Amino acid sequence: IMATSHGAGSAASPFTVSDKPVPAKPSQEELAQMRLQFFDRYLKGVPNEVDRWPAIRYYTLGTEEYRESSRWPLEGTTVRRLYPDAGGVLGSRVATRAGSDRYAVDFGVNTGPNNRWATQMGRPVLKLHDRAAMDARMLTYTTAPLAQDMHIAGSSTMHLMVSSTHEDGALLVYLEDVDPSGQSRYLTEGGLRLIHRKVSRDTVFGESPFHSYNRGDAAPMRPGRVEKVSIRLQPISAVVKAGHRLRLAVAGADSTALERVPATGTPTLTIQRGGRGGSVLELPIAPRR
Question: Whole-model pTM above 0.90?
């Protein structure tokens, strides 16, 4: 499991890449050699080192290293819940007093022309190492500096209790690492079109929440009515180091990757926080090494 562009043409970790491509590790040539070794072993029966390979070798953002495991999710993984709170705080406890935050969607928010979507067309992933300008245009919640390293390993899930002034729209959530200097780096993201918020009983590979995107499951938002929108973020292995902060950023657009939804008008989203009916972020946390 690598942190590279599609096809491993270049590295994609925001801790190593800024505005210029960086070679991937392993390289495309090394990957090709690994494939040959694999096929030699299992198609030709050639005895080689493939039998000693770990079941899983995965790249960890933040420490910029490969780690090994016999299973995924990693053994000992637990769920940690964080809660949006007043003042843009992302806390470890549910606030007793319920509240809400309003966000008028900024349709200029984006992840740049060299984002994770563009890599499918052979582009390198660039300029995700400093999200400060975009953070200021999104609704953000940030933890206090961490007392110890936090290893996020797997797919996080955001359960947003949200209402909108419009029947449809996009809802995007990002996780970011904020270092002591205030520089924020993209870690992962998840997104959903609001009409597809219904959680299906079906699953793929056991993933939950699962959205079918079937026409029959689509439903417009009722303006002003609070709905639960659960979004599964792309899986990662990332260590947010002690002294750093974890940031949750909420947006309603990515102008460099997605069509504008709705086509006209500017929705205002209201995010509920605190109390029994507030939003919650669920993180898969692996044991410290």
Answer: yes
